Amino acid sequence: MDVNLLSYYYGLIAQKEEEVRRLQDARTKLLGYKDELAGYRNLFFQPELSSNTWSGELAEGFESVRSTLQSAYDELKESQFLHVFLAIAAKISELQSQIQYYNSCIDSIRSDLALER
Q1: Which of 18-22, 25-29, 52-56 has the lowest mean pLDDT?
Q2: What's a Pfam family this protein contains (predicted)?
Q3: Taking the CB of residue 108, how many other CB atoms lie within 10 A of it?
Q4: How many of the other CB atoms lie within 10 Å of CB of 6?
Q5: If residue 67 lies in a helix (H) or strand (E), which one and from where to where?
Q6: How many Å apart are CA 74 and CA 93, to the nearest integer?
Q7: pLDDT tens for residues 32-90?
Q8: 72 vs 1, residue with greater confidence
Q9: How far is residue 11 from each of residues 21, 22, 70, measured CA to CA in Å?
Q10: Residue 13 and residue 98: Cα distance in Å, rounded?
Q11: How confident is the model at residue 48, as a pLDDT?
């Protein structure tokens, strides 16, 4: 019975460690995407509008839309990425706590098995 329980806990640990690894990989990829996204910020100001290129109501409307998009972009780049990174960190911490708990259960079972022998 205890040997089966050991196998069960080892399986849970392997599963949780895999989840941690996948979350760490996702975090790394997201950091890359965030850096890539930061490089595109200057594109909001292209083409530059002047009285020689484009002016009037349509140009003002375009500037307004561009300003709105830039605000949404800044929100995504800063706040939303931060929330995702915090959620990933919290989940990794939760999984690591579970792994520690399962390891303590394994230690306890091993102690019981040693006493039985």
Answers
A1: 52-56
A2: YwqH-like
A3: 13
A4: 15
A5: helix 57-75
A6: 28
A7: 998 888 887 777 666 665 665 666 677 777 778 888 888 888 887 788 899 999 999 99
A8: 72
A9: 15, 17, 47
A10: 8
A11: 66
In angstroms, how far is CA 86 from the centroid of its own chain? 7
State both tokens at 59: 């140009």
Task: Identify whether the C-beta of residue 73 lies closer than 8 Å to the C-beta of residue 41.
Answer: yes
Both tokens of 83, joined, read 């929330």
Give me 15's structure tokens. Answer: 């599963």
Return the structure tokens found at 48.
């530059």
Handedness of CA 65, 67, 69, 71 (dihedral sign): negative
- What CA–CA distance (Å, rounded) separates 98 from 12? 9
Domain locations in the chain as residue ranges:
2-116
How far apart are alpha carbons 32 and 85 in whole angstroms? 12
